[in-house]
Amino acid sequence: MLEMRPDCERCGVDLPADEAGAFICSFECTFCAECADKFDERCPNCGGELLDRPARVDDALERHPASTERRFRG
After folding, report:
1. Fewer beta carbons under 10 A from the terminal one: N or C of the chain?
2. For the chain, which residues score pLDDT lower than 50?
3. What CATH number is attached to the domain comprising 14?
4. What is the total count of domains within the chain?
5. Domain extent at residue 4
């Protein structure tokens, strides 16, 4: 199950689990759309492809809450 990390690792912008706009690689490195564009949709950590992260909504989000651990180290 995806962690649904709460922020962009590069700029720290909030990325709510129930909204579009987050991009992840196969290791769940997480970036906002603007940063993913700057990386040409390639993860700067592992070189993997950055893809749209699916949203988690309604009962699924309630039963399986998103992570609260922030990754931005700015």
Report:
1. N
2. none
3. 3.30.40
4. 1
5. 1-68
